[in-house]
Amino acid sequence: MHIGIIGLGVAGISILKEVDKQTTQEMKEQLSVTVFSESEGFGTGFPYQPDDDALLINQYTETMSIDLENQEEFIEWVKNKRSLNDLKNTHLPRSLFGEYLYEETLKLIEKLKVAVVREKVQAVKILENGQFTITTDRTEKQVDSAHLCIGHLAYQDPYDLKGETNFIYNPYPAMKKLSFENETPSIGILGTGLTAIDTYLYMKKTHPKAELTFLSLEGRFSSVRGHEPDIHTHYICRESIQHLVEKDKDSVSLERIKEWFQKETDDHGIDLSWVWQNLGEGTIEGMQKDLQHKEALGKFQALIRKLRDCYALLWNALPDEEKDVFLKEFGRKWSFFKAPIPQKTARLLINDITEGKVKLLRDIRSIKKENERFKVVFNDHKVQSYEHIVNGTGQQKDLTRNIHLQQPVVRQMLEAEILMPYRYGGALIDYPSMCAVNQKGGRVSGLRVYGQLASGIQFGNSSVEMVAKSAQYGVRDMLKDID
Ligand SMILES: Cc1cc2nc3c(=O)[nH]c(=O)nc-3n(C[C@H](O)[C@H](O)[C@H](O)COP(=O)(O)OP(=O)(O)OC[C@H]3O[C@@H](n4cnc5c(N)ncnc54)[C@H](O)[C@@H]3O)c2cc1C
Question: Which CATH architecture fits 2-154+396-480?
């Protein structure tokens, strides 16, 4: 069997790792593996590419590993390589995680005798015999099984500014894209998510006199990461949910999930209604409150993280009407609890914003380039202007809109109807085989999809742990074909 892996970030590396783990030597001899990856992000992926140390992993060090059986793998690696101890509850630079990934990649490439094509894939086509051709500008290969691990979708461009001088559409790597000659550039940072916060941290370190303004719709960041204890669940566990879904999918309803969740929180001594109403607001006052309740908040966040392995099962078992109810009633706040920011970062933001060193403005109506500056109009008709705008609005996960922003292979696979846009983001994927579902509703066996393209069926998640898990499921399903 010839396996093609497109993209070599966390997903692509996890596929290699799982192929290694799930095969005997005899099986390995029947496999040949080719990876295709652009040079930028080769063996690290987009978030963990070489960049400034100001850009941090947003999870605690002890929870970052791509080895699902050894949660300590990264922390042990750091201890050995950097002689750092006492790493519990720390947030290390993302580029350090990239170094660990890169080392793993080189080991796996050698061990599995992987052929490497360091080129960007432009197209993936299905042949009549069920094989796939993977095409770059210079190479074309046929494979029996293709793993699409291209990671992040294109950034959004809500004010149609892409191409304007001084509009920084994609600010990574920050060391390259956020270098300004002027010591005091005036910069509007669009958004308040992860990328916007990275921009703030990097600028604060490299251009402490820059005039920074967060330009947002609602003026909210996220929840602050509390102190997370080890948690074991009793009511929502993968085995029991899987059993239930296989036996009777219709027995899963939003009401039942709420009941289980309530029992789970009661069991851990979490006052669900108090936490929900009082914490995780994401405003400056909200972050201050989170910092005062780190234990209660951390317990809740640890529980949410622990349940990740069940998200896709539960989410896919729910009828769409109930998914919509969930998103409307709980979606926004849940996303804040699910993706917290480090405490130190929250303290910096609170201080700088309350002392007026950095501005946080909300209710943007429009942004246009006029006379070499970006003119921002707010809902109350007030106007501000900036020399530069940095785009921190996150990725365009809806594949029915602004397709021109997506990279060629995504556009080609949508046009060829091999991928079907999924209403909750990314493409429709059959879970847990991770096989693409085409626009006729058929499962494309042999083509498996991971990362942000698969995040819609994973309840919006594409964290390291979720991506590594989906690689485990995808490889397990693929290997059934050669058993
Ligand atoms: C800024 C940022 C910070 C994050 N921080 C965290 C964190 O701290 N913790 C966490 O758990 N998650 C974090 N995430 C979530 C992140 O999605 C995952 O951690 C992980 O990087 C996903 O891996 P991936 O392989 O799907 O994508 P990527 O890491 O993006 O890797 C995709 C790879 O495919 C290559 N590629 C793309 N297109 C092609 C093509 N056409 N041909 C060939 N190669 C291609 C790219 O160059 C890249 O190397 C973060 C995400 C972002 C954007």
Answer: 3-Layer(bba) Sandwich (3.50)
